[in-house]
Amino acid sequence: MSTITIPRPDDWHLHLRDGAMMHAVLPETARDFARAIIMPNLVPPVTRGSDAAAYRDRILAALPEGARFTPLMTLYLTEETDPDDLATAAQSGLITAVKLYPAGATTNSASGVRDFDKMRPVFERMAEIGLPLCVHGEVTSPEVDIFDREAVFIDTVLDPIRRATPGLRVVMEHVTTKDGVDYVAAQGDDMGATITTHHLIINRNHILVGGIKPHYYCLPVAKRESHRRALVETATSGNPHFFLGTDSAPHADPAKESACGCAGVFSATNTMPLLAHVFEAEGRLDALRSFACENGPRFYGLPVNSETLTLEKTDTPTQWPEKLQTGAGPVTLFDPGFPVYWAVKK
Ligand SMILES: NC(=O)N[C@@H](CC(=O)O)C(=O)O
Ligand SMILES: [Zn+2]
Ligand SMILES: [Zn+2]
Predict the structure, then answer these.
(1) Is 155 a catalytic residue?
(2) Per-residue pLDDT averaged across 141-154, rounded?
(3) What is the Å distance from ligand 2's center to 106 Cα?
(4) Which residues pair with 46 in a beta bridge?
(5) Packing angle between helix 83-91 and helix 49-62, nearest 10 degrees?
(6) Cα–Cα distance for residue pair 339/341, rounded to 1 Å
(7) Could you say which DSSP state residue 71 is in?
(8) Domain extents in the chain
(9) What is the pTM of this model?
(10) Which residues are annotated as part of the binding site?
(11) Per-residue pLDDT averaged across 246-258, rounded?
């Protein structure tokens, strides 16, 4: 039986939610991952240092007995964000990054930023203290086609912000296009990007062909196959700009299977075996270590985890429950649509 042992991986983009949902999904991540960047798009959002401290304490209190997992907290940027509050939270080690949601771009982004120019003093302060900015990189103008929103964001928002604020460390979250990976790959080491598990596996046909599949709907929406190929080639290349951010984003089934379904794919449970499958299919199992364990810590200036995770090849396909039962309702797990002969060794 073939196995691969890597440092325990980290998830550089994760939604844990709160309350009953958090209690159910947190063990799914803590089982395989040592650390995760915790997204702040709660209702109401995590905007102040005191909110992040309280949320971190709720996460720590919800961890299963014996779990070895560190939540890396973030703050949700609004036009009211106080640069001093950010700096205090960063310097005390409470937060690891700040998240920029263009207002209206995605789930729970209504309090996000409308006028990026207003954020200049905040970005300058972040550049000074080396606090990374994580961005949901899509414009929201109604006239821009949803499949073009990432590429337009790069030209009209991301690149201007970076030019105006030299030294600002930026992560383009859940990059979904060749335009995105080409942009990031051409920048210096102050620019990184996360790639999700599901964007390595599905393209837009998976969402729309043969009936609409709400559990494949997320934002940024999956693009055409040539973009998915660019993501796979990039993730498996070992390029240090790119690292795993699952964007595992649970919503209870009734909220997804609806006339106006929520965006988000839940993949915490099966991400590592799925990645082993994808990397093996490219003949690049060796690059799983850089993508899932090394490139993220390097960008964030953190040590690679010293504990390890072993994945083993299985004779029969690994079975996962179709749904995770939570106190907030059932949550459907991401289904790659093919059998997976990898499992995390217990
Ligand atoms: N990715 C998603 O489709 N949804 C995320 C928000 C986000 O990361 O944009 C969520 O919070 O549900
Ligand atoms: Zn997002
Ligand atoms: Zn997300």
Answers:
(1) no
(2) 98
(3) 6
(4) none
(5) 40
(6) 7
(7) E
(8) 3-344
(9) 0.98
(10) 13, 15-17, 41, 99, 136, 174, 219, 247, 251, 263
(11) 98
